[in-house]
Amino acid sequence: MHTEQHEIGIVCGQCDLWSPMGTARCPECANDLALFTPRRASSPATSARRSPTPAAGSLGGRAEHRLDPTSSRGAGRSPKTTSSKSEFAELSQEELMEQARNYVCRSCSSGVPSGHKFCGRCGTAVPPEILNAQTLFFGDMQNPAKAKLILIRGEGMDGLSFHLKAEQHIVGRNGQLVFPDDPFVSPKHANFFYRDGKLVVRDEGSLNGVYIRVRGTIDITPGDTFLAGEQLFRLDPTPRASDGQDPDGTYFYSSPKHPSPFRLTQVLQGGAVGMTVCARGSSLQIGREGGDLNFPVDLYMSGSHCRLEEHNGKFTLTDLNSRNGTYVRIKSERELAHGDYLFIGRKLLRVELNTN
Questions:
Q1: Whole-number pLDDT of residue 171
Q2: Residue 235: phi, psi to the nearest 5?
Q3: pLDDT of residue 84
Q4: pTM of the full predicted structure?
Q5: 3-class DSSP state of 122
Q6: 308-312, long-range: CB within 8 Å, 24+ apart, which pairs?
Q7: Which residues, in sequence order, are CB contacts of 98 under 8 Å at separation 6+?
Q8: How many H helices and E strands in the chain?
Q9: For 32-45, how does the pLDDT look when each residue is reduced to its tens digit (9 = 90+)?
């Protein structure tokens, strides 16, 4: 009975070539194959010829069992080769840069810090595409005038980032940031541009507008619209009194009328009017339960989501630390800060500025 034989060797952490145990350097790329190599000075010529020193804790090579080619079961087999087509070949530059920022070793699934050329756990080399993308990523972030948008919610495109490198960036079904699958995005919806080193967003006359997440309490005026959960609302002033006598002296019969400083109108898809609620006092609270206006089946609505208030003819909108936020439509343009959230159509975007 033939017994399968095994041969132990070292696989180069740089080019994946197998070599017998005891081989000092890879015959293909001259990478140091010693599993534990003491630090030693090297001449400039040697440094130019050899690969960069692995990151702390990584190995230049790794021990591996190999079938003896002379055995019956190992005959005809060749050492493992890598595919000629890179797994990153189909990724865009933006996707590569995002991979570079959060790279995970393909051999052992360990996180590899940005800038490291080898996995610190198993010694596997970081692909050159990722190393190049890391260089581009850090080059972008060194420019204090540059920002990026992270797509938080977007029908399967979640997590994509868009680096705002130019002076202007048109968002819409056409332009630089294109969302052709979103029927609520206008052809030319919004523009992100820089003014005096600050990032600004401008509504380009879109049908559905640009909404920004409310931070704490903001001032609003009658006619303003805002999002809470999946509901769209419009703040309306109290209508003028129309309950006087008819020309013949008859009063119109109606329900009892209560004083109300404002009313809130729900706007349905297509612009139709849904519910209209008149505030009984100086405030009106919206949520999933326990408020003046409740939406128990809205999964994006918090129990106590937001509150509208009136004081001396002025109106404020307060987000009550809701999980998904309250968003108000910008009137024309708005300067953006790090961490701002925006709704454009059904796409939720987060603004990231260089805060260094």
A1: 96
A2: -80, 125
A3: 52
A4: 0.59
A5: coil
A6: 308/220, 308/235, 308/262, 308/264, 308/279, 308/283, 308/284, 309/282, 309/283, 310/261, 310/262, 310/279, 310/282, 310/283, 311/282
A7: 159, 160, 161
A8: 3, 23
A9: 776 544 444 444 44
